[in-house]
């Protein structure tokens, strides 16, 4: 069920170039003209712009750049994403990963998705904080109950990152790369990270949460000091702000397709074929744990191959890799 605000946005999305009269809107939504006017004022305060012409009505001229719950709802009404059995768009939460995990534990139908405008306790890998200010970026988590052997968890993160990178390349003409195992980079700066968390028993993954943080509109001065030289955002790279709601809508469909293909088993050849084109580390000297050497792609199960100086190959299943600048 759409909220009134979402229904009003929907009516404008139905008529993207046309003027919609206040009277027609009111009739369609069973609201008085005063109530329509009040809602339009609220939408203006949210960052929408309308062109109002006497006797013609209103035309939506601009949408907000920050993730807007009702705009995303309206977009999903127009082009639904049935893969997700439940989808929540929250103002603020500690972590969308924790929220998705709680929903799975509470037997919410899956696949489910939680998005938030901000996170007060956003988590990165290895206990790090994920900087999650309001109104700038995308924070979302997908909750699944997959019948998947724990050994296959490695490739689901790589596959998700790869499909996201392909989508961002196609949409924004940016040279997006994937840094094994879970980061998206553009020109040596991180723009997104994926945190995959699983509840596993002896032979199966019971619950799986794939959390994605994508820097969309954050500006350089808003990045914390320790990220100043290593992080970026799509808006910084493009030089203008982006519509985060439309981006979220498209990304949900990409993720649904990617996970659908993954669970249908249609990913392994594609992952191996495409990886070299997206591999940020390929051919570079790296160090990881006690291993130093040159990256030689991934194995079919998604582990990183590192060639040591003596020519032997080390296979890294998980961990943190740092580039050694030469
Ligand atoms: C990393 O690069 O360390 C992974 C970052 C993952 C961040 C996302 S934001 C949405 C989801 N909720 C969290 O608390 N973390 C993930």
Task: Describe what you observe in this structure.
The protein is elongated and about 80 Å long. The strands form three sheets. It has a seven-stranded mixed β-sheet with strand order 3-4-5-9-8-7-6, with helices on both faces. Strands 13-12-11-10-14 form a five-stranded antiparallel β-sheet. A two-stranded antiparallel ribbon has the order 1-2. With 326 residues, it is of the alpha+beta class. It has helices at 4-14, 22-29, 33-45, 69-78, 96-105, 153-172, 234-238, 244-263, 268-278; strands at residues 49-53, 57-62, 86-93, 112-119, 138-144, 176-179, 183-186, 189-200, 205-214, 285-288, 291-298, 304-307, 313-316, 322-323. The chain contains nine helices and 14 strands. It starts with a helix and ends with a strand. α2 crosses α3 (33-45) and α4 (69-78) packs across α8. It binds biotin. The site of biotin (BTN) has 21 residues, from α5, β5, β8 and β9.
Mean pLDDT across all amino acids? 94
Strand order of the largest sheet: 3-4-5-9-8-7-6
In terms of DSSP E residues, the strand content is 25-35%
Shape: elongated
- Main sheet record: 7 strands, mixed
**Overall strand count:** 14
SSE string:
HHHEEHEHEEHEEEEHHHEEEEE
The total count of helices amounts to 9
Gyration radius, to the nearest Å? Answer: 22 Å
What structural class is derived from the secondary structure elements? alpha+beta
Span of the ends, CA to CA: 57 Å
Query: Which small-molecule ligands are present, each listed once?
Result: biotin
Helix content: 25-40%
Note poorly predicted spans. Answer: none
């Amino acid at each position: 069920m759409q909220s009134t605000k979402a229904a009003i946005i929907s009516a404008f999305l139905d008529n993207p170039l046309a003027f919609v009269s206040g009277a027609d809107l009111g009739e369609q939504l069973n609201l008085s003209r005063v109530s329509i006017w009040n809602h339009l004022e609220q939408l203006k305060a949210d960052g929408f712009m309308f062109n109002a012409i006497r006797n013609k009505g209103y035309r939506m001229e601009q949408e907000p750049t920050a993730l807007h719950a009702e705009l995303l709802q309206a977009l999903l009404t127009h082009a639904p994403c049935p893969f997700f059995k439940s989808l929540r768009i929250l103002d603020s939460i500690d972590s969308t990963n924790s929220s998705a995990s709680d929903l799975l534990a509470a037997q919410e139908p899956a696949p489910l998705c939680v998005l938030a405008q901000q996170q007060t306790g956003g988590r990165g890998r290895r206990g790090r904080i994920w900087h999650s200010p309001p109104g700038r970026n995308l924070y979302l988590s997908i909750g699944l109950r997959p019948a998947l052997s724990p050994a296959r968890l490695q490739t689901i993160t790589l596959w998700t990152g790869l499909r996201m990178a392909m989508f961002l390349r196609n949409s924004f003409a940016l040279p997006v790369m994937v840094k094994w195992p879970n980061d998206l980079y553009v020109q040596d700066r991180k723009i997104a990270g994926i945190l995959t968390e699983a509840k596993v028993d002896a032979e199966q993954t019971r619950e799986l949460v794939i959390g994605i943080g994508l820097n969309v509109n954050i500006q350089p001065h808003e990045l914390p000091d320790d990220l100043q030289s290593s992080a970026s955002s799509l808006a910084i790279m493009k030089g203008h702000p982006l519509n985060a709601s439309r981006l979220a809508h498209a990304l949900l469909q990409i993720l649904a397709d990617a996970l659908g293909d993954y669970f249908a088993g249609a990913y392994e050849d594609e992952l191996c074929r495409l990886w070299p084109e997206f591999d940020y580390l390929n051919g570079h000297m790296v160090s990881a744990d006690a291993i130093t050497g040159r990256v030689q792609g991934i194995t079919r199960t998604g582990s990183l191959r590192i060639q040591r100086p003596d020519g032997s190959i080390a296979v890294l299943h998980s961990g943190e890799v740092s580039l050694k600048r030469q």
